[in-house]
Task: structure prediction
Amino acid sequence: MKAFVMRAPGGLDCLEIIEHSDPGAPGPGEIRVAVHATSLNYHDLLVATGQFPAADGRVLMSDGAGVVEVVGSGVTEFKPGDYVVSCFFPQWQDGLPQAPVGSFAGVPGDGIDGFASSHAVRSAHAFTHAPRGWSHAEAATITTAALTAWRALVADGGLKAADVVLALGTGGVAIAALQIAKLMGAAVIITSSSDEKLERARALGADHVINYRQHADWGTRARDWTGGRGVDHVLEIGGPGTLAQSIEAVRVGGHISLIGVLTGLSGDVPTAQLMTKQARLQGLIVGSRRQQQEFVAALNLSDIRPVIDRSFTFEQLPDAVRHQERGAHFGKICVEW
Ligand SMILES: NC(=O)c1ccc[n+]([C@@H]2O[C@H](COP(=O)([O-])OP(=O)(O)OC[C@H]3O[C@@H](n4cnc5c(N)ncnc54)[C@H](OP(=O)(O)O)[C@@H]3O)[C@@H](O)[C@H]2O)c1
Result:
C-alpha cells in the first residue's frame, strides 16, 4: 500500500511516498480501514517541517477518515462499510487526561504511524463513527481541530446559550469554535489579520469581528463589545503574544482555553490581572474518544458542515503543508485520495 512518510533528517524536502507493507487482516478487537482523507493541523505542519522531529519512516498525519473494510473478532461497534474517523489520543478513551496522554508519544503522525496511507489496521477504540452523511474529508476535520474546540467550549467550558465566545483567528480550531458556539446559541467574536476573512466569519454567523493587526487592543475591544462585562470563553490559540489581551477580554470568573502556541512557547503572563479576574486558565490538548463520540452525536443533530478552504490530492500533501504555512487559509485544509 502507498504511504507518505518522513525521512531522516526531516523537513519538507524529506517527505516521500513509499510502498509500505500492507497491515493485513485485523486481529481481535481491531478494524481494517480504507483511509480516504486527512486534514492538516499546525501539529502536522510542525512534524512535516521537521520542527517536531519524527522517526525515520514515520507515516504522517494525525487525522484520518475512511471506510471499515474488515472487523476483527469481538468488534461489535463497527461493521464493514461504516464511515469512521480516527482519534487523536487512541489510548485516551474517557475521563480525565492522564499521563502519557499529555505527551505526543501515542499520537498518530507523531509518536506512532499516522493516516497518510491507503489502509490502517488499529484497535476499534482508535476510531469513532463519522458524522452521518459527511464526506471523508469533512469527517477528517474533527479528529484534532474541531474536537479541541468542542472540548474547550462544551465538555470543559460548560458553554450555555447567550454566553459570549472569543475565538482568535480564522484557522481550523477557531472556525470550528464559531460553528459550535452558534449551534449552542452563543454569541461569537472572531479576530483576524484579514478584513476579508472577517467578512467570511460574519457570513458564518460571527456577531462581532476585530482585525487584530489594526487593533492591538483587540481584547479590550472584545470586552467593550460585551458592555464591559467581558467574554465568558476565550479560545486562546496565540499563546504568549496574545494571552495578555485574552485576559483583558475575559469576564470575572470566565474561562480561557490555552490551545495554541502560534506566537511562541513561553512568555510573560499578567498573573495579578488573571487572579483579580478569578478566571480559569486551562491548558488542553484535543480530547478523549468519549468526547469525540458526544461531539459526533451533536453533529448528527445539527446542520453544521465543516469549512474546507482547499483540498489536495495525496501526491500534493507537501503542497498542502506549504499552503498552511502561507497562512492564507480560512478553516481547514484537507487531503483526499
Ligand atoms: N491544544 C490543542 O489541542 C490544539 C489542537 C489544535 C490546534 N492547536 C494549536 O492551535 C493553534 C491553531 O491551530 P489551527 O489548526 O487552527 O491552525 P491554522 O488552521 O493554521 O490557523 C491558524 C490561524 O491562527 C491565526 N493567527 C495567527 N497568529 C495569530 C495571532 N497573533 N493572533 C490571532 N490569531 C492568529 C491566523 O488567523 P488569521 O489568518 O485570520 O489572522 C491563522 O489562520 C496552533 O498553535 C495549533 O498548534 C492546539
